[in-house]
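stuck on this:

***
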Amino acid sequence: MRSNTPDLSSPQLNASHDHGAVPFEPDMRTASIDDDAPSENRQPLGGWAKRLLDLMVASTALILAGPILVLIPLLIKATAGGPVLFVHRRIGFNGKAFDCYKFRTMVPNAEEVLERHLSCNPQAAQEWAANQKLSCDPRILFFGRMLRKSSLDELPQLFNILRGDMSCVGPRPVVADELQRYGAASHEYLKTRPGLTGLWQINGRNTTEYSHRVLLDTQYVGAWSLRRDLSILLRTIPAMLKFDQTS
């Protein structure tokens, strides 16, 4: 396991590098970011207030989810074997790359399986090019599909929040190649930490087209307020129960 992988209180954990939106009108109590300030001195969206909320929510969630964080690794080992964590490089605030943690939901040779599947299935290749996701993904394990349906595979990202890599609410974390698809909107993405949940989570999840996800991320940054973060957090729980909206 890499040295910066979080300790989930289990000796078996090891890491592997494996439509319509709800109206979001501007609010007078929104974040203001000085675009003229040097990038190295810029603070993430929301400043200390958002960071304090992140620490409170993530710490509480880790305590409440403690038994699940122990049980899931055991079930992964029992049903699929191999690494328990999937560690992937994502782009965070100000363009800084970080290791994003998830419970492993795919076969160990996921990249090879994906390349083979796309080369033999033009329709799947077109779907992947458009959304970076597949409605029928051959890489996903049976138990992994259950984790994804419930979003429990993302629980380890609570450690990313404590580390300051992510926020409880924000844009969906993306890889470097994906950020290029944001175009001019990438400037908005880089103003904040990516989120464990966000507007994309409560507005269709994986059924949302990629261009619409970019629009939601841009709307989130442009109209941020602490009250809106709290609202998104509260609406995330019922959104997670809509299992038909995720792969």
In short: The first strand starts at residue 15 and ends at 16. The longest helix spans residues 47-64. The two ends are 28 Å apart (CA to CA).
